[in-house]
Design brief:
heterodimer, A: mainly beta, seven-stranded mixed beta sheet, B: six-stranded mixed beta sheet, globular
């Protein structure tokens, strides 16, 4: 158990809809990272927050957004969903340095 | 998005055999990490490497940070059934951002 929690574990929705994925980092970790894992693209970095502020951005679509709250939990919002957004979404947390600890993921299926 | 090249893509071995896999990049990384992912789970950190040439062990696992800083290697000795899974390398540049760039993965299967 990495200490990172993610909810929900599974999410099934329809195209055009909007969903919110939630992540609670390990106790004491200030950084939260979001990754997308799909069969054809592998594990791709989306975005990082550190102590409530955006720190780094990767290949995150404009339809996706994230935020980190004062209690350090983070939410990833995915809107106008398309079939291709079906993937595993992982949250990782860390102290702001190099090692990142991953949560169990949320499997998103867009029908 | 960018991915690091890992080889082999998959391995079929017998229990007790040693395993070697590697990861190469066209660009330099300052930190190399190795993760293992079981089906339906998130990647679990196995080993972290911080210095070119560094050799680090974690039980039966040994990883090396390549001298050129563009590659890394992972060895598993005397494989056991719980070693089955997908192994990912990941690189970090540490230049103003902390995003991990992941390898394409090596799937390890143990033949009974």
């Amino acid at each position: 158990d990495s200490g990172v929690t993610q909810t929900p574990k599974h999410l099934i929705t329809a195209t055009g809809q909007r969903v919110t994925l939630r992540c609670s980092p390990r106790s004491g970790d200030l950084s939260v990272y979001w990754y997308q894992q799909s069969l054809d693209q592998g594990l791709q970095f989306l975005i990082q927050y550190y102590n409530g502020e955006e720190r780094a951005k990767g290949n995150i679509l404009e339809r996706f957004s994230a935020q980190q709250f004062p209690d350090l939990h983070s939410e990833l919002n995915l809107s106008s969903l398309e079939l291709g957004d079906s993937a595993l979404y992982f949250c990782a947390s860390g102290g702001g340095g190099d090692t990142q600890y991953f949560g169990p993921g949320t499997r998103l299926t867009v029908l | 998005g960018q991915q690091l090249n890992q080889s082999p893509q998959s391995m079929f071995i017998q229990e007790g055999e040693d395993v070697s896999m590697n990861c190469t990049s066209s660009s330099i990384f300052n930190t190399w990490l190795w993760y293992k992912q079981d089906p339906g789970e998130g990647p679990v950190l196995l080993i972290a490497l911080y210095k070119a040439g560094e050799l680090t062990s974690n039980g039966r696992l040994t990883a090396q940070f390549g001298i050129t800083r563009k590659d890394s290697f992972l060895n598993i000795s005397a494989s056991i059934p719980s070693d089955v899974g997908i192994y990912f390398c990941a690189g970090l540049t540490n230049f103003g951002n902390e995003k991990l760039t992941f390898g394409t993965g090596t799937r390890l299967t143990i033949i009974p």
